[in-house]
Design goal:
The protein is mostly helical. It contains twelve helices and two strands; from the N terminus they run H-H-H-H-H-H-H-H-H-H-H-E-E-H. It has a two-stranded antiparallel ribbon. Helix 1 packs across helix 3, helix 5 runs antiparallel to helix 6 and helix 9 runs antiparallel to helix 10. The longest helix is centred in the first third of the chain and has 21 residues.
């Protein structure tokens, strides 16, 4: 227990540092099975720490997969469990972490990308659709992040992202627009244009930094990525 507390303090100091990105190689020198638990606990901190922990976990689990694929799959199943209401966990930071893991490891992306889609795909059957709007926005972000690295896996998510443009949660609409922009989904352009005047603030994470923007600006950026006029 003392070892766990000491390691948790060490990892927290690394991620709280202004030079946290330079500290990631040091973090990766610690066995992944020891760092996963503390890093997952940091997801609940919210804000900058949540994003940094998700980034670190993406690297840690990918390295675990290179060394022991089954051990990495155990972590992925653990993440999925935390998205399950029966787990008693709200799921904060889990979609972002799943996306970061899959961005860093192709085999895990092949195995689990459809699970990420399923959280925002509402059907008439039993499904994994998330009723909590901020968590849906997190999934839209995760799909957009994965679209940056593995767009070929994201085409099945386009329809769900179209629905996301009408999400009751306005920040989620912005995230869905951003994701569609990353996928160059030009068929959605007219729908994205309907969001251009939406002033709802959004806290967005890109290039490993938090950006304060609006739904309208995210829609505008999506159209720019497609090479289209707003």
């Amino acid at each position: 227990m003392a070892r766990f507390r000491s390691l948790k303090t060490q990892l927290r100091c690394l991620l709280q540092s202004d030079m946290w990105q330079d500290s990631l190689p040091e973090l990766l020198e610690i066995p992944g099975r020891e760092t996963v638990g503390p890093l997952m606990s940091f997801l609940l901190f919210g804000g900058e720490m949540k994003w940094r922990a998700a980034t670190a976990l993406g690297l840690v689990v990918a390295r675990m997969a290179d060394e022991d694929m089954e051990q990495a799959r155990v972590v992925m199943r653990r993440l999925l469990w935390h998205m399950n209401e029966e787990s008693g966990n709200v799921g904060w930071g889990i979609p972002e972490t799943m996306a970061e893991v899959m961005c860093n490891h192709r085999r895990l992306a092949d195995d689990y990308n459809r699970m990420l889609h399923s959280y925002v795909r509402e059907t008439t059957e039993d499904d994994n659709y998330l009723d909590h709007p901020p968590l849906r926005a997190a999934v839209y972000w995760g799909l957009g992040r994965l679209a940056q690295v593995r767009p070929e896996l994201m085409q099945p998510a386009v329809r769900a992202l179209w629905w996301g443009l009408e999400d009751e949660h306005h920040p989620g609409r912005g995230m869905a627009a951003w994701a569609l922009g990353n996928l160059n989904a030009r068929d959605a352009a007219d729908k994205i244009r309907t969001l251009l005047d939406d002033p709802t603030p959004v806290e967005h994470f890109e290039d490993r930094a938090i950006v304060c923007t609006t739904v309208g600006d995210m829609a505008r950026q999506a159209l720019e990525r497609m090479g289209l006029e707003a």
